[in-house]
Structures are given as C-alpha cells and as structure tokens.
Amino acid sequence: MTLKWLAVLVATVSVTLSVTGNVVIGAIDGGQLPLVVNLFALTTAGTAVVLAVLADLYDRLNDRLTALTEFLVARLNDIEEHAGDRNAGFVEGYLLSHDREAAVVPFGRRGRGAAER
Questions:
Q1: Whether the Cβ atoms of residue 30 and residue 24 lie closer than 8 Å to each other
Q2: Measuring CA to CA, which residue among 43, 46, 55, 41 is closest to residue 5?
Q3: pLDDT in tens, the chain (117 residues)
Q4: How many C-beta atoms surround the C-beta of residue 14 within 10 A?
Q5: What is the DSSP code string of the chain?
Q6: Residue 67: its pLDDT value, please?
Q7: Which of 49, 54, 53 is CA-nearest to residue 12?
Q8: Contact in structure between 53 and 3 (CB atoms under 8 Å)
Q9: Phi and psi, residue 44, nearest 5°
Q10: Measured between alpha carbons, how far is 108 from 77 in angstroms, rounded to an integer?
Q11: Do the Cβ atoms of 18 and 34 come closer than 8 Å?
Q12: pLDDT at position 108, please?
C-alpha cells in the first residue's frame, strides 16, 4: 500500500472511531467522549489528510519529471542520430576533397596588429 492510501485509511478510521464513540456515548448517557480523545482523533485525521495530499503531489511531480527526462533523452538521441553522422561525414569529405592536409591556424588576435607581432 502506498503512503497516500495508508494516510487516507488512517484518517478515515480516526474520524469513524471518533464519531462512533461520540454517538454511542451520546446514546447511552447523553454525553460525549472526553475532549482529549476528540482532539487526538481530529489531529490524527488532519495530519493524515495533509500527509495524503503531500504524497499525492510528490507522486505527480515524480511522474512529470520522469516523463520530461524520458522525452529529453529521446530527443537528444534523435538529435545525435541525425546531426552527428552528417557533420562527421561533411568534415571528412571536405578534408578529403583537398589534396593537402588542413593547415592549423593558431588562435590569436586578428587585424592589423596581429601581423606585426
């Protein structure tokens, strides 16, 4: 059982026991359960409901992140499949079409000042 459904079950049981206890005590002698018992039941139910909502939000966020990750992986694989081979072939073809090896041009400043240095 997941955390969400376990929290829903705890909240339901807590409220049911509190209401049933108050109805039985009220039918027998016209009173109600002690305030501490009622507050404990309500606090337990409220905490369980908040926990169930947070667990549901976590599940939704996790599902969306998984879907986004799968989409990005598929898209990157698609881009690599189409672009990687084409670019490699273009560079090899360009280099083979020239008889000489490509010259290595060092990085440096361009312009008039670069030739003087």
A1: no
A2: 55
A3: 689 999 999 999 999 999 999 999 989 988 888 999 999 999 999 999 999 999 999 999 999 999 999 999 999 988 887 775 555 556 666 666 666 665 666 677 766 655 555
A4: 20
A5: --HHHHHHHHHHHHHHHHHHHHHHHHHHHS----HHHHHHHHHHHHHHHHHHHHHHHHHHHHHHHHHHHHHHHHHHHHHHHHHHHHHHHHHHHHHHHSSSPPPPPPP---SHHHHH-
A6: 97
A7: 49
A8: no
A9: -65, -45
A10: 36
A11: no
A12: 72
Structure tokens at 57: 């939000």
**To which residue do tokens 């955390």 refer?**
3
**Structural tokens at position 98:** 């020239």
